[in-house]
Design a protein that fits this description.
Elements: H1 3-60, H2 67-77, H3 82-97, H4 101-114, H5 118-132, H6 138-145, H7 156-169, H8 173-185, H9 191-206
Length: 208
Amino acid sequence: MSEITIKNYQTIIINFFKKNYKIILSILIFFIIIFAVFQFYLWNKNKNILKLSLEYEEALSIKKSSNEFKEKLLKISKEKNIYGTISSLNLINQIIEEKDYEEAYENYLILLKKENDQIYKNIISINASYNLFDYINLDKISNLLSYFDTSTESLNGYYYELLFMISIKNDRKEDSINLAQQILDDDKISSLIKDRVKKINVFEKYNK
């Protein structure tokens, strides 16, 4: 490329910036403002999470049976983050300890409908189903499990174990056999779950 051509390009670029410097400057300022707002949002979010963490730890140091414990956790449970979810689960555990299983079920449903993160939703679904399995109608357990998404895979073993237990309780022999086989054949399912299913199978075989 000749020296004259290079100078022509430089002249074109310089003229472009001279004519459009206001627009370019406005765009730069816009992006700087966006970046600053985003940084402030992250800082504020982290600050809020730290504050909730301290409030949660403070709540746990209070006697569980006290009104103050429930009030603090109720306040945190309204937040849409991990501490809000954990606080809600703590409150539901309190309800279960008081043996109000139907209220616990309703609260689990509220939490499941509110939760957007599918991983957390899966954890809540499994936790709720195990906690209430012996205390509420099996149709309601199935309803809790309907919020579970098997595509995440990590908790699938517990999900299929619960379905297996439901089929046993409902005396659906064919379903229980198929589910047991599915669990035993799946390499991704924990050996502990497989052992429990084997033991239940043996018990059912010799006690019916």
